[in-house]
Amino acid sequence: MSAPVAHDAACIFCKIIKGEIPSFKLIETKYSFSFLDIQPTAEAHALVIPKFHGAKLHNVPDEYLADILPVTKKLAQATGLAIDSPEGVGYNVLQNNGRIAHQIVDHVHFHLIPKRDEKTGLVVGWPSVETDFDKLGQLHKELLAKIEAHQ
Ligand code: 5GP
Ligand code: ZN
């Protein structure tokens, strides 16, 4: 089995990490790089990416993933989003995997999207079904068996 590849010369986000393409850089650590999204849905919409080329979340080593949320938290705090009330400004952290799940750039990225009003930021909607405890119980059993087998 070949070793995971940390960089992809054709990847736009790898080029941003290397400085081959300019970006409005915010925070950089050993494992992560963050910068402003060039097509923001809200002011200060930022992206936090691992300094490791992986298309989807499961392609990225844990040490890179473990650094992403602390960086995201720091950005939220520094940009005035971290208020200790359920009311007022909020924010969403979004990470898409695959075209059907709205991923366009195939290098893992976490969106930090300020939610200040109804018009800007993430709009969330998903279909849901009525609670069915029998069905959930059966599914739970199946999933636990799969998780056990995966260890
Ligand atoms: P996705 O739909 O893949 O989760 O989101 C990709 C995001 O990357 C989009 O919000 C898009 O605006 C952003 N993006 C794409 N290309 C560039 C770029 O060259 N520079 C920056 N800063 N953001 C980019
Ligand atoms: Zn990449």
Automatic annotation (TrEMBL):
InterPro entries: HINT, Histidine_triad_CS, Histidine_triad_HIT, HIT-like, HIT-like_sf
Cofactor field: Mg(2+)
GO MF: hydrolase activity; nucleotide binding
Key word Cytoplasm present: no
Motif mapping: Histidine triad motif: 107-111
Family listed: Belongs to the HINT family.
Protein name, UniProt field: Adenosine 5'-monophosphoramidase HNT1
Provenance organism: Lachancea quebecensis
Lineage, opening ranks: Eukaryota, Fungi, Dikarya, Ascomycota, Saccharomycotina
